[in-house]
User: Which sequence fits this backbone?
């Protein structure tokens, strides 16, 4: 089929090349085979092959050298196109459509449009946030603790406070977390005194689990670090 200089339907040519690769059970293809598949005058064959190389569909096997034509082509090429790329392109189109029209209007989508991989990473949480803001933002009139709000929006009470992904996501969306109207709830303070004698040895531990373990030892009259303690406190350590 000669197209006489009219633009060649490269989509159909790609399909034929994929069929050829499957049928011959090899990725390499000779220039003469390429010319037969493209089925056009030489100048259009050159144009089409160059387009396919630019699109990373074909890759020249350079060690076989060029032909003798003025607009030279390599004598052998390799079909390197991954058929899964088609599904990937379709998925990316779906993501772009989602970004362009289905999310909460205050979400800045610019970062995600430039980096769809990042959007895929954040997507499930972004959608939960977006749905909440579109359907239940009236709940934000009442302030609550960060853990309560995190569970209300994301179904995970630790997400906002402890998951670094949350900070990364809100930064990408160009939004302040405080849009969710929560307050920080400090860890409860625990204190235990075994007796009132003076002077007293005081032990400070970091969390409540350790507190209850040490308290149990104190109640049993056991020494800790070869010492007797009369007072036990917990303290929340802030890590940077």
Assistant:
């Amino acid at each position: 089929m000669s197209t006489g200089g009219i633009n060649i339907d490269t989509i159909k040519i790609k399909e034929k090349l994929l069929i050829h690769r499957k049928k011959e059970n090899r990725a390499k293809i000779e220039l003469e085979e390429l010319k037969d598949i493209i089925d056009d005058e030489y100048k259009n064959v050159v144009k089409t092959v160059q387009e396919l190389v630019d699109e990373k569909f074909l890759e020249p096997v350079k060690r076989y050298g060029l032909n003798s034509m003025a607009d030279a082509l390599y004598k052998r090429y390799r079909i390197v196109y991954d058929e899964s790329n088609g599904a990937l392109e379709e998925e990316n189109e779906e993501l772009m459509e989602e970004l362009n029209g289905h999310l909460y209007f205050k979400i800045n989508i610019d970062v995600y449009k430039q980096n769809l991989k990042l959007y895929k990473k954040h997507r499930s949480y972004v959608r939960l946030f977006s749905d909440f803001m579109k359907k239940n933002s009236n709940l934000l009139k009442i302030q609550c603790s960060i853990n309560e709000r995190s569970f209300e929006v994301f179904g995970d009470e630790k997400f906002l406070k402890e998951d670094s992904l949350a900070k990364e996501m809100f930064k990408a969306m160009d939004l302040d977390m405080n849009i969710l109207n929560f307050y920080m709830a400090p860890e409860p303070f625990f204190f235990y005194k075994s007796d009132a004698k003076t002077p007293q040895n005081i032990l400070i531990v970091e969390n409540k689990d350790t507190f209850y373990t040490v308290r149990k030892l104190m109640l049993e009259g056991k020494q800790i670090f070869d010492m007797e303690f009369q007072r036990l406190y917990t303290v929340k350590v802030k890590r940077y």
In short: DSSP finds ten helices and eight strands in the chain. Confidence is low (pLDDT under 50) at residues 1-8. The longest helix spans residues 116-135. Residues 32 and 75 are 8 Å apart (CA to CA).
